[in-house]
Amino acid sequence: MIKRWLLARRPFDSPFLTLGVVLLVLGNPFAKWVFSLFGLIGVNLGFARHRTWRYADPAFSWIIVCYVAWTAFLVVARDEPILDNRFLTYSGIILGFVFLPMSISLIRQPLDTLILGSRLAILAVLALIPFDPLLNDNRLGLGLNEAILAFLVAVAGLAARMEARRPEPYLPNSRLWTYVSLVPVLLTGTRAAWFVYVLVAVFDLLSLLPRWREVPPRLRWLALPAVAVALAVAIPAASLVENRWDAGLKEIQRLEETGVATGSVDVRAVMWAGSLAVIADNPVSGVGSTKRVAAVSAAVASGNAGYVGSFTHLHNMFLDEATSNGLVGLGLLLGIFGVFLFQVTRAAPGGRVVETSYAFVFLVVTFGSFHGVLLNEWMVLSTFSFMTLVLVSIRREAFRLRYSTRPPVRMAQRSR
Fold this sequence. Notes:
about 0% strand; glycosyltransferase; transferase
């Protein structure tokens, strides 16, 4: 019965998941239903068809379970509220990705699904830019918080640069997808999302420069118009970056002069200093997710306490985690990304997967240093769907290579 149901689903799983990836980048609520459905199917298969567990990376799954268990233990031990606990809610979403590999076990090319969905999403965002009804203060949002949109598009830009095994003719494999995604990211005005593009450019230069002599002379001339286009885009982009950078410097200067935070950059500096004081007093288990902002507010100067207390998080994923769940929780959280990079590096798949995975973690770290990456359902879904689909594709490829070499051996044994 289960086998028939799985085979009946097989033709629809890949396009349905691709649709989910596209809608996720656009912030469409239907994306949550898509991933929820796959998660529920994964839970069902995990208990009803144990063989599907082989598609889940054991180390990655166990570190997630340990992190979620620590979070849940602290919530229960502190008798914190459950219904309105954001940390517990998002930890539950993260736990759902332990079961996602089972639900997509019949998708032959899960990485292609992520890549295709990301490329379509980038084109969709570009098409929607002129119609953004909430384009305030020259910042693109598409109905979402500008920082959230920047992160979603940046992740899509990284995923789109990986090489699909079977790319669509009109959506070819190319490194340029990342730079195309830079356009909407710049329009969001989110400074924390810009650093990863510098790293990607360095990766590409290191990869392409040694091959420059292999390029035919006729094609080398194409570099001139490419540079011209890049300069044409860089001039307005540089102006935008300079304006946002200067605004941040002015806030810091004003904070040094008055001691009072009034903007988005200076208040981060104030709350981060208060967070370090809270962590120093509660290093192991923190103070709890429902009390961390109040604790930080009490640790800063009275002139900034009210402004700091008006926020729901600390705009730093590491300090948010350490103040809520202590250094143990922070260590487990970092372990999730460490295990991901270790598994990808050990497998060393082609198609720019390794370098893109490192760029992805770099994005999470740099962006998370200024924003609560794991305190928003859109960014949680984007972060863990990327890692899960990459790891599932690696395991599927390993199984494919293993089983492709077994039949001749078995035939030889039988012939004896």
